[in-house]
Design a protein that fits this description.
With 546 residues, this protein is α+β, with helices and mostly antiparallel strands. The chain contains 5 helices and 32 strands. The radius of gyration is 27 Å and the shape is globular.
């Protein structure tokens, strides 16, 4: 039998069959419809990986807080393709501003290490001017805050630590002379991590303890300057004492009937929860999405934000995850952008495993398969400048501007290897699938009729038009038959190869590939650039371009 002919025939048919197979499988699988427009990473003199923090914007101004960088970074985002750093507000050179909010031409910067809340005039972004400070001696505020919100003329802030759960309400209509209004003492047992306001309702996110359940509370804050908030209801998990703890932050749907809450943990059990709060006295858990449900390899979700019909979630090492809320009780992921790609690349030292171009060897424990043990990646997301100018705040990389306007764009093809803009992204590149162990053996095999080594030469990219023309040529029934026929031929070919040597497939290099044979799949943060079959993993097929 001419095995060389079979190999040539099977290779061509497999690629054709794979295209039809990919086009025909479940269309509900999420697609990446977000593109990077710009990134700016200010230099701040620290080698820490946790440099930047929360982000906010208004008009052409964006402000980003700091973790270990210190100060606040003020950006001009009038050109989203080329944002610029207008100023670095850094009084004293050692203030950690975890919170940064801008409303109009006024900035509110909350310090986590003793500086209070700075209220700053940003009329001239390049020359920010301090208007006043809220702290323990000026407005009876906290010196260190973790989260804050501005509602009208009022600042509501928490403390940066577990020593108090009290929330403070302060009138800041005159920034130079803030006036203490009242304390809010929640029923949460330990600490309120974050607050969210929609209309006259405020939602708090409780942390809980190992012995007491955390509570997410719902308050009526109508006329908060004159009367104390009214507790309308609260959420706590009844399945176990700690199953609902570590509620990090939440955001309500536009109609106020649903609440999306991120539970932050470092053990892989974190999740995104959906509650029906149409009756705040009896909130109901209606959905829960964990990392396993979304096929993510990340520490935890962090902050959710709702704009219109979409839920945007900063998800640390999984970047930004975007969900459609057509059915508000069941968020459906429709897009993402991964700002943590480079961290998934293998260290240079591991390249000594093989002389060939590589990214992942089947069956080995690689970095992209390991559950992260720390917090890194996307910290915050701000979509309110529009879908074409969504801001991401990354702990290491600073400000990213992405275009998510493709989320509501009709698909131009059902073949998921193409982007919504129909730009060709699928290309065969010169790479080798290496079989055998020594160069001598490989050379002998290559020269025989049973050669198990193939160089895939460069070919033109596959475009939408090419796929559509091919799709019109074959109907689904024909494609189905071809796929199974190809599978049989390809299996025969693999059998001939396996008889010669244990196989090992080296895939094309990407920053963060999906593992075809690990027990944990990584987030498909970028489109994969190859379709490969992992012959070393019990015949498991690995489609790496999803």
């Amino acid at each position: 039998m001419n095995f060389s002919f079979l190999r040539k025939l099977s290779f061509g048919l497999v690629i054709s069959g794979a295209l039809f197979f990919i086009a025909g499988i479940d269309k509900d699988v999420h697609a990446q419809k977000v593109r990077l427009r710009a990134q700016i990473t200010p230099e701040c003199g620290t080698t820490s990986l946790a440099k930047f923090a929360d982000i906010s914007a208004d008009g052409n101004l964006a402000v980003q807080g700091s973790y270990n960088c210190r100060g606040v970074f003020i950006y001009d985002v009038s050109n989203p393709d080329a944002p610029t750093l207008a100023a670095w507000y850094n009084p004293g050179n050692n203030l950690q501003f975890l919170e940064a909010v801008v409303i109009g031409n006024r900035g509110y910067f909350g310090s986590g290490n003793g500086g209070g809340v700075h209220i700053v005039d940003l009329s001239v972004p390049a020359n920010p001017q301090l208007l006043g400070i809220v702290n323990s001696t000026n407005g009876n505020g906290f010196n260190s805050i973790h989260e804050m919100i501005i509602t009208g003329n009022f600042l509501i802030e928490n403390f940066n630590g577990f020593s108090t759960k009290v929330l403070k309400v302060i009138n800041i209509s005159n920034p130079a002379s803030p006036v203490f209004v009242r304390d809010i003492n929640p029923t949460e047992v330990l600490w309120v991590h974050a607050m969210h306001i929609r209309g006259n309702r405020m939602f708090t996110s409780g942390w809980g303890t190992g012995a007491a359940r955390g509570r997410t509370e719902i308050y009526d804050i109508t006329n908060i300057g004159a009367q104390a908030p009214t507790l309308l209801g609260y959420i706590e998990d009844t399945s176990s004492v700690t199953a609902g703890n570590n509620m990090h932050s939440s955001w309500s749907s536009e109609d106020g009937n649903y609440l999306y809450s991120c539970r932050e943990t470092s053990n892989g059990n974190a999740d995104l929860r959906t509650y029906n709060i149409s009756n705040p006295a009896q909130p109901l858990l209606v959905n829960k999405l964990g990392m396993g449900d979304l096929n993510l390899n990340a520490t935890s979700p962090h902050n959710p934000v709702v704009m219109g019909n979409y839920l945007y979630v900063s998800w640390y090492e999984a970047g930004m995850q975007i969900f459609d809320l057509t059915d508000p009780a069941v968020p459906k992921r429709v897009g993402q952008y991964d700002s943590y790609q480079a961290a998934r690349a293998e260290p240079d030292a591991s390249k000594s495993l093989t002389e060939e171009p590589w990214d992942m060897i089947c069956g080995l424990n690689r970095a992209q398969n390991n559950l992260p043990t720390g917090f890194d990646g996307n910290w915050a997301v701000y979509p309110f400048l529009g879908q074409n100018k969504v801001l991401m705040g990354d702990l290491k990389n600073g400000l990213l501007v992405v275009d998510a306007s493709g989320l509501n764009r009709p698909a131009k093809t059902s073949c998921r290897i193409l982007t919504a803009t129909a730009k060709p992204i699928f290309r065969f590149t010169r790479r080798r699938a290496v079989y055998g162990k020594s160069k001598t053996v490989r050379t002998a095999i290559r020269n025989s009729h049973f050669s198990a080594r193939r160089t895939i030469k460069s070919s033109p990219p596959i475009t939408t038009a090419m796929v559509n023309r091919t799709s019109r040529f074959f109907d689904r029934a024909t494609a189905f038959g071809i796929f199974w026929a190809v599978s049989a031929v390809f299996a025969l070919n693999l059998s001939a190869r396996a008889a010669m040597s244990p196989s090992r497939l080296i895939m094309m290099p990407t920053a963060k590939p999906m593992s075809p044979c690990g027990d944990r799949q990584t987030a498909p943060g970028i489109f994969r650039r190859a379709v490969s079959v992992c012959a070393a993993c019990s015949g498991e097929q690995a489609v790496t371009n999803l």
